[in-house]
Write the C-alpha cells for this entry.
Amino acid sequence: MAENNFKVIVLGIVFDTKTRKILIGRRENDAYIKKLTWCFPGGDVNSGEEPEEVLKKEIKIKTGLEVENLGAVFSKIYPEKKDFLAIYYLCEVIGGKEKAREKFKEIKWVKPDELEKYFTTSFHPKLKEYIMNIGDKT
C-alpha cells in the first residue's frame, strides 16, 4: 500500500472584534503555489511539533503580533497543491507590534466580504461562509 504524505500547514484567521476585520499578508514568488499572493498568516508543521504552537510562532514571525488561538475551524486540501493539508484556526490579537516580516511583503486588515478579491488561489465556499458569519456577529 502506498504511503500518503501531506505537508501540513496551519493558518490563522486573525479576527479583530473591534473593527470586524481579518488580517492577511501578501507574499511574492511562493515556492509551492505559484499563483499565491494574499493569504492568512501561518506556516509548516514539522514532525514532532504541536500545530497550535507552530501557528502562534509563525504568526509572530510574519506579522509581529501575538495571538490567542481560539480553536480549529476548518481544514482542506488545496486543488492547486493536493499534497498540502491546511488547518485553519480562529485567532485574536493579544499583543505585539504589527509589521510585515519574513515572507510577507505587506499585511493589511480587510473586511470579511472583501477577502475573496485578494485571494488568487481557491477559496473554499464553507470557509467563506464561516468567515462571513464571524464578520456578521456583534
